[in-house]
Design goal:
Elements (H helix, E strand, L loop, with lengths): L4 E6 L3 H13 L3 E7 L3 H10 L4 E3 L2 H6 L4 E4 L6 H10 L3 E5 L6 H14 L3 E4 L6 H12 L5 E9 L13 H5 L1 H12 L2 E9 L6 E8 L4 E7 L9 E5 L3 E4 L5 H6 L4 H4 L12 E5 L2 E5 L9 H11 L7 H20 L3 E2 L1
Parallel strand pairs: 1-2, 1-4, 2-3, 4-5, 5-6, 7-10
Antiparallel strand pairs: 7-11, 8-9, 8-15, 9-10, 11-12, 12-13, 13-14
Helix pairs in contact: 4-5, 5-12, 8-12
Length: 339
């Protein structure tokens, strides 16, 4: 018998329903025990999607029902309040990105969790994107040589939709992923320059980061880009890696496919989506690593059961929020910000 952790979810909008519930329900060492939502329509959706999973009016009620951990997937302006409720109830807490709306509130929340002795982590799922894992492997093997420039994009053509107003706009929505990946690969940032359009929801932005190790990261995020650029273009002293498309785990979840249904086929990229390694006029495809969003919740459960490290250190996210705050300041003032 596999020892299982009783896990709950707060929120059953598109984030909770599409990006969290299927992964929680698919984890072998997790018992999906309930969803906190007061919406009758969403309670009905929970019953349809996950028969036998209870619904609750509050985080406290979820904890009283025996939950040991909870994931918070609600509008970002409610994350800090709900996380504090979960911490007060003694629940190991996962908060979706953007973690909070600024670095100060992020720092305060992480400090409060540490003082209370309650583990806290952040759902930075794109650390387990197929293309990101492939790129990390290439860098570690030395296939690129010394990386000089890291270009990363999350661009969409969605003129009939608005970025999430309660989530700080596109800068925090897409920027939380873009900055996290850049820092994970290339280390601390010492200088930030940014440009933004579409106030107050900043639906199009560019950020330039100077890393202490010398790498320059150029990051683009947009909801208004009719011709999206490549997901990654990473240039080193030996070669350049270009990955054309965004990892397709999001597409799988939106189509109703889950790790439980696909098993070992989950996260496997079709060959047409593989990136290429270029050296001048020559280029060759690079087989994509398997995308592994399905490992996040099992890792949280393993941490609870054995004391293993949580999959994401929340202080990483505090540092990311400092960079995003600096980006907003730079875009407002027109001046680069030194960290």
């Amino acid at each position: 018998m596999i020892e299982r952790v009783k896990f709950g979810l707060v929120g059953y909008g598109s984030g909770g329903r599409v990006f969290h519930a299927p992964l929680i329900a698919s984890a072998l060492n997790v018992d999906f025990v309930g969803v906190v939502t007061t919406s009758p329509e969403r309670r009905a959706q929970v019953a349809e999607d996950h028969p036998g999973v209870a619904t609750f009016d509050s985080v406290a009620a979820l904890a009283e029902a025996g939950a040991q951990a909870v994931a918070i997937s609600t509008p970002a302006d409610s994350h800090a309040t709900l996380a504090r409720e979960a911490i007060a109830a003694g629940l190991v807490t996962v908060v979706d990105k953007p973690f909070t709306l600024d670095a100060e509130s992020a720092r305060k929340l992480v400090t409060e969790a540490e003082t209370a002795g309650v583990p806290l982590t952040v759902y930075q799922n794109r650390r387990w994107d197929s293309d990101f894992l492939t790129l990390r492997k290439l860098i570690e093997k030395g296939s690129l040589g010394d990386v000089r420039r890291f270009e990363s994009r999350m661009e969409r053509w969605a003129p009939d939709r608005e970025p999430p107003a309660a989530g700080g706009g596109t800068l925090l929505d897409f920027g939380s992923h873009l900055v996290d990946q850049a820092v994970q690969l290339h280390g601390p940032v010492t200088r930030v320059h940014a440009e933004m359009r579409g106030a107050p929801l900043d639906d199009d932005f560019f950020i330039a980061l100077h890393h202490s190790g010398g790498v320059e990261s150029h990051l683009w995020g947009s909801w208004r880009q009719p011709g999206p650029g490549p997901r990654f273009r990473v240039t080193g002293t030996l070669s350049t890696y270009i990955s054309p498309e965004l990892d397709h785990q999001e597409t799988l979840l939106k189509a109703g496919k889950t790790p439980a249904k696909l098993a070992d086929r989950w996260g496997v990229e079709p060959e047409r989506n593989w990136g290429h390694l270029h050296r001048g006029a020559t280029g060759a495809p690079v087989e994509s690593c398997r995308g592994r969003w399905d490992t996040f919740y099992p890792a949280v459960a393993e941490s609870i059961l054995t004391g293993a490290p949580l999959p994401v250190d929340p202080w990483d996210t505090v540092r990311n929020m400092e960079i995003l705050d600096a980006a907003r300041q730079s875009a407002t003032t027109g001046v680069s910000v030194t960290l």
